[in-house]
Specification:
With about 220 residues, this protein is an all-alpha fold. The protein is built from 7 helices and no strands. α1 runs parallel beside α4, α3 packs antiparallel against α4 and α6 packs antiparallel against α7. The radius of gyration is 19 Å and the shape is elongated. The model is unreliable at about 220-225 (pLDDT under 50).
């Protein structure tokens, strides 16, 4: 027989999936604004942040209500606590997307030296990680969740390479310094999105397998990217 808490947990899950969709769109628009050189996309990311914050509050209140009206057992507690952590990471990813949009609006246009960086690949990996994280939650896919860790290692590697390359580019001409600093900030925000996406993958793995994969590197996963 279905318990009242099961209905409440399903509503929580539906809200969290909606939050996933909102945040995925924020990241997509923020990256596309740079890739397509469209300031209007960056502005839309900033304008829609309030919607994400409202949904974040709804999910927190839903979790509080479930705690207040029920006596969650071990599995229920795992679902609720993981939902809270996933939601917090999603909200932070949205904040970082807004940061990217604001940096780009201040930058004005994509610098010509972008062609010397791995920026396109970094953006692609960031979006791929988030897609894996969202899909792993929706489909309770532990292997997809685990795969994110290996991708994050690659993302970090490229960000480090480009950070060093930016130093060289800024040394080449004083005219590159301002755009170089903006670009460095963009790379840092994308790397942080990767970190929070990895956190989501770890939570999904914990939900599905009831075991932690925190502090493991990509080599431990035995999965190919």
């Amino acid at each position: 027989m279905e318990r009242p808490i099961d209905i409440q947990l399903e509503k929580l899950r539906s809200k969290l999936i909606k939050m996933c969709s909102l945040v995925d769109e924020q990241v997509d628009f923020a990256i596309r604004s740079i890739d397509e050189n469209k300031q209007e996309l960056a502005v839309s990311v900033i304008e829609r942040e309030l919607n994400v914050d409202k949904f974040d509050n709804k999910i927190e209140k839903t979790c509080q209500k479930i705690f207040a009206l029920n006596h969650p057992v071990a599995m229920d507690l795992r679902l609720i606590m993981s939902a809270l952590k996933i939601n917090a990471n999603l909200e932070r990813i949205s904040d970082l997307s807004v940061n990217i949009a604001r940096i780009y609006t201040n930058m004005g246009n994509k610098p010509v030296f972008f062609d010397k960086l791995h920026f396109t690949e970094i953006c692609k990996l960031t979006k791929q990680m988030l897609k894996y994280a969202i899909d792993s939650y929706i489909y309770s896919d532990a292997e997809n969740a685990k795969r994110i860790i290996g991708i994050d290692d690659k993302l970090d590697e490229l960000v480090n390479l480009d950070s060093k390359r930016l130093v060289e580019i800024m040394k080449e001409s004083p005219l590159n310094v301002e755009a170089g600093l903006f670009t460095f900030s963009l790379l840092q925000e994308l790397e942080r999105i990767g970190d929070h996406t990895t956190n989501i993958g770890e939570e999904v793995y914990f939900i599905v397998k009831a075991e932690s994969i925190r502090h493991r590197n990509g080599k431990d996963t035995d999965l190919q990217i």
